[in-house]
Amino acid sequence: MRTETKKNINFLKEDDLYNLILYAIFKFTGDPKYSTASELIYTLDKDNLLNLCSTFGGCTIKIPTILELKTFINALLIYYTTVSEHKTFNEVFNKLELDTSLKKDILNIYKTVVEVMDEYTK
User: Fold this and answer.
1) CB 15 within 8 Å of CB 41
2) Which end of the chain is more exposed for a tag (fewer CB within 10 A), N or C?
3) How many contiguous H segments (helices) and E segments (strands) does the chain have?
4) pLDDT at position 4 over 70
């Protein structure tokens, strides 16, 4: 190995090596599903990246957006509050001062949670 190449490799951080490995997998396979995998190392530490690969390796997963997470969290919060405080969906929704443009989505999720919980508690 050339001295210059060896010196450059020594300057790489562990994250950079994992980034290169994941990028190499993308280039080797040509599979577009791997196109952003190399960025995972900058979001997850090495151990969590390896856990992710161990758990979901070979699978295609869809990661929810922040808005989707917030919508589901709000629907669950509303459900909890309607049950614990005996209030209606609208009362809780209005009290939380949530974005009215999300009301339909939150209500749909809420209704599903109600159905699931009704089945679960029978």
Assistant:
1) yes
2) C
3) 6, 0
4) no
